[in-house]
Amino acid sequence: MKSIIVMALSVFFFSVKAKVLVISDIDDTIKKANSTNSVSVVWYFLKADPYVEMSKLYNEIKTYYESQGEEVEFLYLSAAYDATFNQEKWLDKHDFPFGRTILRKIGDGKTYQYKYRSLKSVLSKENSNDLKLFLFGDNSDQDPKVYHDIVNDMNIKDSQIYIRDVSTYATYWQTGWEVQKIPGLNYFFSEMELRDFEHFYYLSNDILTSIEAQYKSQKLIPRYTFKTLEKRIKDVECALEGILYCEDTAEMWAKNLWQDYHQRL
Known about the structure:
By secondary structure, the chain is of the alpha/beta class. The chain has helices at residues 2-15, 41-47, 52-67, 87-93, 111-123, 143-153, 191-194, 205-216, 223-241, 243-264; strands at residues 19-24, 72-81, 100-104, 131-138, 159-164, 186-188. Strands 3-2-1-4-5-6 form a six-stranded parallel sheet, sandwiched between helices. Strand 4 (131-138), helix 6 and strand 5 form a beta-alpha-beta unit. The N and C termini lie far apart (57 Å). The relative contact order is 0.12.
């Protein structure tokens, strides 16, 4: 009788474990794409370099939750058109966890409508009460609003949203510059900030050491993000100081802020 009770309890506790669903954008979230610059995006699209630490992070998420007996599923959702990118091959090459991929097709509409509709289709098939949802994206376009809206509209209680600040607008740089964030979302300028989010308490020393080393050598963030910061300085300050002054000093200003960021953590 005792063994039957133990078995029943084991089945019960296993059945109530949450399913972990990790949904990730691709361009400028896990692949360096320079989406904020329509001219050089083609060059970065052809290079297709990954954010290496994100591959490590995703694999540690998978390893940790599977060790807890939970089912872990990955979905890669991109607004890139499916005719232009072999996403499965790229993900496998750079050691991202296996998962289904959804890319935009001709006629799928604008980015917000396409991503919202795709997420609603996926999430409507899940039991929201037993779902632990991670959403990774960036703020080059619509990810923050799409993720915020879908989680609230579908009333998903256990969700975490992580947004890479490729626009440089969600990171504090200096007094007087507006910081643009949607409340409740977790923004990171580089993987260095990811270490401090409470949901990643289980990260191994290997990934923490790797992130810190890349941070100190200024290799976590692609160089094009520096140029985005320089452009932001011009956009914010030129109207105040005059165009000639701004053009002359923006690069040096950006260098000083860049150095400050790489010394602050």
